[in-house]
Amino acid sequence: MCGIGGIFNKDKGNIPDHDTLLGMAAIQYHRGPDGFGVNIFDDSGVGFCHTRLSIIDLESNRARQPFVSDNKELMLAHNGEFYDYQRIRARLTSKGYKFRTKSDSEILLHLYKEYGFEKSLEHLRGEFAFSLYDKSTDSLYLTRDRFGIKPQYWALTKSGDLVFGSEIKVILAHPDIERKLSESGVFHQLIQVMVPGSTTFEGINQVLPGHYLKVKRRSGKLTIQEIKYWDIDFPTLEERMTDRTEKYWVDAVRDQLLQAVELRLNADVPVGCYLSGGIDSCSILGLASAIRQDSVKAFTIGFDNDAYDESKIATRMAKSVGAEQDILMLDANQLYDHFIETHWHTERTIYNTLGVAKLLMSRHVNASGYKVVMTGEGSDELFAGYPSFRKDFFRYGLDDLPAKEKKEWESMLNQTNKLFRGAMLSLNDFNHPALTAKVGFMPACIENWVSLTPNARKLLNSDVAKHLKNYDPGNAIASKLDSNQLSNRHALDKAQYVWIKTMLEGQILTWGGDRVDMANSMEARPPFLDHHLAELAVQIPPNLRIKGKTEKYVLREAMRGVLPDELYKREKFAFMAPPAHTDLSKLNALDNLKSEYLTADRIKDLGLLDYKSIESLWSSYTDKATPVGELVQQDAILNHAVGVQILHDQFVKTDIPKKAAQLVRKKVANKKSGTYAN
Length: 678
Prior knowledge:
Blueprint: E1 2-8, H1 18-26, E2 36-41, E3 46-52, E4 67-68, E5 74-82, H2 85-94, H3 107-115, H4 117-122, E6 126-134, E7 139-144, E8 153-156, E9 162-165, H5 168-172, H6 183-190, E10 204-206, E11 211-218, E12 221-228, H7 246-264, E13 271-274, H8 279-291, E14 297-303, H9 311-321, E15 324-330, H10 332-337, H11 339-346, H12 354-367, E16 372-374, H13 379-383, H14 387-396, H15 403-416, H16 433-439, H17 444-451, H18 453-459, H19 462-467, H20 473-479, H21 491-508, H22 510-517, E17 523-525, H23 531-537, H24 542-545, H25 553-558, H26 565-568, H27 584-597, H28 600-606, H29 611-621, H30 628-653, H31 656-667, E18 668-670, E19 675-676
Parallel strand pairs: 13-14, 13-16, 14-15, 16-17
Antiparallel strand pairs: 1-3, 1-9, 2-3, 4-5, 5-6, 6-7, 7-11, 8-9, 8-10, 11-12, 18-19
Helix pairs in contact: 1-31, 2-3, 7-23, 8-9, 12-22, 14-15, 14-21, 16-20, 21-22, 27-30, 29-30
């Protein structure tokens, strides 16, 4: 894993500034401390930068990026991993292509020559974001992997030049990019759900998962096409396979997951595993332990609250497969003491301090001598693990189930997930017309958050509220959902699709994934998000993804041999850090942050929030009479409100180009050799 950045000027004669590109690399030093590179095509107005975390081909000079093809026509900067690259490299070598490195990244230069751009993407397996410039066609391609595991941001300067990077701060390091929070972006932050492709910052966009941008010069301007190359394509009701047995699906899932894990164990450095008490990470550890000849290192987060702590059950799993477990126990002080730092890396607000916990864990992993871990992300998305999926399945996907039983099942679901009501499950039924019209029902996975729109609107100051008077976050989210992927699908398929397009990319893979992992130069590999496994999973009949009341049924059966009986039978338990209201020390820690960032003066300085409304919210949050479910919601909104103020301090008030230049002076040991100072 690495960090990339670059500039594509609308005027070929406008040569990108070398020092600016150097600053764009240095500001994301944490993503790749093993070396950096800058390459500029002087005659094309194009420049790339790259900062490297060595995982494959550890020889620093040989694998240094950006890569330039032998004929000087192509330039590539790649972040991520291409799996199965050895087979692809061997095949291309047999066709006469010459490789200069052992890096997985280099295969793309030759795939492009052999197959062209679109066909090359079909050969790529893994998590990746890359920039590829072709001088012969004067085309820039900015590409993001199928699920959005790896980030890719872009923006236009006031003069119309394009700047891109792995993180928002990379773009803000360019002196011609305006640093400003978006009013609608802040509104969405307060309700947790972002519009796919958007950010909290004015004018800064994301390449959507499974998409690429094709950028060309035309008539003195840049033309930008956003093109979809892949989607999580659930079959229509008529296309569903009905002739396959349960055993077929169980065996197929086992085989595909095993292959995905085996590919992700391939590295020139040790590979460990994240381990919680869920069947997802436990399945990955179980398979990795069976494949490896030595003991697998398993890293577990523990909390100082038994209701949220899974470390004990994780220990039993680790012992069952002979893994070497390393538990990091965290308390309130550790979580809130690093809340501010976490936002520098997430570049968006977080509703729960789990993001902080994962940042601290990645730091611990790095300090333990590991650069790579496998994770369980993606399992709930593919195999219908979240309680919201069961809610929609019970309500809209079981036509033969009597209404009385549906209510009983939903009541049981609410009871077993009472800790997470107000977050993972809504407190009350809520309907949003645009989302209901687009999906066919109000998807439970975002029901709670969208229901908080009136609460969030109250927190906006009067001027912002006027600007956004006719803005409806639910409408904006609905407009980005593809009707073609929702029409004539089973209710469970629709529910999973909505989550994958909103919360997976916008939450799980950002502040719960890449951003807090790469903050400490630590690569996370999620085997469940292998697209071959995903293309199988969407075909599994809904009544085998959830069988009766049991979520992830097919996965449970496929992994039964590696899971202790306790885990095999365990209901999905959402992985969250204890909210502030669960403990006085946590509440005091949040209060300290509020006292620093949500003062009348600081709120006025930012000009987006309303001080009196914040105070009213805090009063309700600290009132012992407030119901627990509402406390869960209020805890999330308060975390977001503090986060908005932090983002303003870190990215708007701070001179990011100046900070980047300072980092160049501090971190860069030798500009020519591409080495960082220790």
